[in-house]
Amino acid sequence: MELLRLATAGSVDDGKSTLIGRLLYDSKAIFEDQLEAVERVSRQRGDEYTDLALLTDGLRAEREQGITIDVAYRYFATPARKFIIADTPGHIQYTRNMVTGNSTADLTIVLVDARKGIVEQTRRHAFLASLLRVPHLLLCVNKMDLVGYDREVFESIREEFAAFASRLDVGDLSFIPISALQGDNVVQRSVNMPWYEGASLLHHLEQVYISSDRNLIDPRLPVQWVIRPQATSQPDYRGYAGRVAGGVFKPGDEVMVLPSGLTTTVAAIDMFGGPIEEAFPPMSVTVRLTDDVDVSRGDLLCRPMNQPTVGQDLDAMVAWMTERPLRPGDFLALKHTTRWVRAMVRDIHYRLDVNSLHRDESVTSLDLNDVGRVSLRVTQPLFYDSYRRNRQTGSFVLAAEDTNVTVGAGMLHGPD
Amino acid sequence: MGGQSPHLVNQCTTSSQGAGQRLDLPVMDRGRGIAGSGQYQLSQLQNIEAQSIHIIREVAAEFERPVLLFSGGKDSVVMLHLARKAFWPGRIPFPVMHIDTGHNFPEVLEFRDRFAEDLGVNLMVASVQESIDSGRATEESGPDPSRNRLQTRTLLDAITEHRFDAVFGGARRDEEKARAKERVYSFRDEFGQWDPKNQRPELWSLYNGRHRAGEHIRVFPLSDWTELDIWQYIADEAVDLPSIYYSHRRQVFRRDGMLLSVGPYVTPRDEEEVFEVSVRYRTVGDMTVTGAVESSSTSAEDIVLEVAASRLTERGATRADDRVSEASMEDRKREGYF
């Protein structure tokens, strides 16, 4: 069984919580005691029908205000796949939450109300999914029941969105007309829309091809931890533990250690219990080397003929997530793969309007929920790839040096 | 899914994709095989296992004094098993700690000691009874008092005393609504409190464990695991568990719809009839608040089938501590609970 991580985005009242509630309910991921709790609350509030949206509102403040505050994670499975949903609210803290939810997603569902069509938030959500390079984007046109299941409505929304998406970097774009409330095209194909010949939403989620989304080309292993048992049974064991961030490693491969630049050979790749034949993303493994070279946490294993960019001057798109604005001259803590460094903001080139995609070059700072192109200088060289080539070695987070809070997320530009 | 490179072989049996069967329960895929036909694929269990090991290694590398909370319950057993894999063939580089309410099942305590000894980890026990005796915590009044909530005081005192800066917990996001919003690295202030409305954003696999002295981070490596995942993993990896997780005969009585075990801390009231039945436990908390379920499952494989067919959450079915109100977990978590 494969794992598919998906993120959902939608505006207020577009039925996102209802859709998730229905997916969970129809795939039997909702248990009777959870449903009873929801029915009880619905009755107390005097709702006309059981509000499946209540299934996803976890915190008291959310239930009281009827809104979703934070990213929530949901789980369900079919015989084909296990699904993890990062459910992100579309209204408050939208950039922060959506960037977070999309950062690990294989697929993003953007919901549109068929009566309203493409609105500002639709474009924003699609843009953020493309910024985070989610490989698959799925536009669900919801509430088709309220427009008489009219094909023309769906087609016109599809055309308008496709035109907009052509300006984005979207790998795979699909469209499905649904009614989350009535269940049309959610799990079963709808009998009300015979003109739609594609898959139901759940079938699409089960079938979408995700294996080629990882980088299997550029071998990268950021070292997390050095395993030295120093036991009499294993006097000389020395292994470099980490999670493969790209490419494939095999015993016998010639590898280069960064930053030292020394080359050696992979002697063995271990998992619990013994050696394995090869390692690829996202496996957690331990690599042994033939030569006794100095390797420590924060170093990176790659191939001599396939090295990442090594540098201290970074060029990145940064999503800013805190009230205090980001300004040139600011110092921040930056985490990239397995190392923390100190970063200074050299320049803010422009702010990208996430609704219009317009570049505003007059800005001198980035405010909460802004996205912009930023130059940084870091205290030690990083070994990185462009984010478009590798989401693991091309990303970083920024933390405030005084409060330690995570305040920004960066996607690196590289030579390619 | 042991370490002997099962990843490289396509051992998956194609599950039926017929329209009518799509919503059948996912029990036939043992989480072991490799989905699809392409190479370089991990099953979903291998995927979340790799993620958990990555998290555990990050914590060991970035914190001064981590500790892993180990109760002998299935989630903490799986977490400790993952820690063992993360550092193999080396030793687990941090101690484990049990918050002992004094109301634990004896079978679980016996298992706790044996499992820790087998792995060669340092087991610390923080006692709720000692917190009560020293006046740090006050026993609830009434018959059969629960010590569930008192654990928080003992836990926070132990964290302060030992200056732990990272505390591994086995909580899963699928357990409960408040937990669904929890981060993998969950920041706690100097009072040990969780502020659900002010959590650090958590992107990619880049965890931010930065904190000041006196603050700490709760770490949840099993965040993306479901109850079914835990049982499939226990079955696949032949992970050892306390005996009470499997079917056995027991003297019980019914209270608030739950089957409670007759024992030193739980006394049936006059109207509560005691009977013997085949039961097992889905969770192992305090004897006072943990209910058994009727079951004839004697193996992890049986339980995978049973869990897949269950229509109640494990906490809804078996935990009185979560039934107090809609928000009882949220409230306890804010105070610094697990």
Q: What does this 3D model show about the protein?
A:
The complex is a heterodimer of chains A (416) and B (338). Chain A has 416 residues and is α+β, with helices and mostly antiparallel strands. Chain A is built from seven helices and 21 strands. Chain A has helices at residues 16-26, 32-45, 60-65, 94-103, 120-131, 151-165, 201-207, and strands spanning 2-9, 72-77, 81-87, 107-113, 136-142, 172-177, 221-222, 225-227, 239-243, 254-258, 263-271, 274-276, 284-289, 300-302, 309-320, 331-336, 339-352, 359-360, 371-384, 395-399, 406-412. In chain A, strands 7, 8, 9, 10, 11, 12, 13 and 14 form an eight-stranded antiparallel beta sheet that branches. Chain B has a six-stranded mixed beta sheet. Chain B has a four-stranded antiparallel beta sheet with strand order 8-7-9-10, with no helix packed on it. In chain B, helix 2 (74-87) links the parallel strand 1 (66-69) and strand 2. The model of chain B is unreliable at 1-38 (pLDDT under 50). The chains are: A alpha+beta (416), B alpha/beta (338). Chains A and B meet through helix 2, helix 3, strand 2, strand 3 and helix 4 of A and helix 1 and helix 2 of B.
